[in-house]
Amino acid sequence: MSAVMMPGQPVADAVFADLVPRIDALRAAGHPPGLATVLIGDDEPSARYVAMKMQKAEELGCSSPHVHLPADATTAEAIDAVQRLNADDAVDAMLVQHPAPPQVDFDAVLMAVDPDKDVDGMHPTNVGRLALGILGPVSCTPAGIEAILAHHEVPVAGRDVVIVGRGVTIGRPLSILLSQKRPTANAAGPHVFGLDHPGHAGRRLLPDVDEACEAVAGWITPRVGGVGPTTIAMLFRNLVEAAERRAGRS
Questions:
Q1: CA-based nearest residue to 57, from 108, 19, 9, 96
Q2: Partners of residue 96 on adjacent β-strands
Q3: pLDDT tens across 200-235, in order?
Q4: The model's pTM
């Protein structure tokens, strides 16, 4: 038996196809979506990630103000940068890149972000909104996973779902998301448990699931082009939804 591959790119393409006319409408109304990015230090992978988001924002016709703080920046300086972006009407959402240098209290910086501008859906207010089913930014990778399952018509409703890993960025919010009563969710029992997995061996990145599972699984995402593209698409969906909410209040 060979697993059915579930590529994420078609899902991401469908999300962006929906977002483009909405962005055009916001621009026509004088409110182009603004995604701010904050980078603290000079970590190269982080810098590449932020640059990719800025480039995608510009391709979509969104503004992309950027704040780059030096590697010796303090927590107070990072919070001050976030508060300036909170007060900027041209900024609808912001991304504070993780990890931060060790002297910066990243949790304190995250707490300073206006929850309505939290594009990653990681502020405690937004985690609470997710748990209660209240409208707000949803953690991007879990939202992308649900979208992949829905796109490829993998049934979730009424099923037991096992989630390996209970981290705050994926495992825990995914368990909440898949348990909610929606046609693409409504799992009977999301079970979350931890598993020691190094994530890398030396300088070689490893997938979350052993590739040998393809021989026995019913469905599986490719190692490249799986969840990654949908995570980016959901980040921009959070941006556009934030811009639409703010435009409606202006």
A1: 19
A2: 38
A3: 444 455 556 777 888 888 999 988 899 999 999 999
A4: 0.90
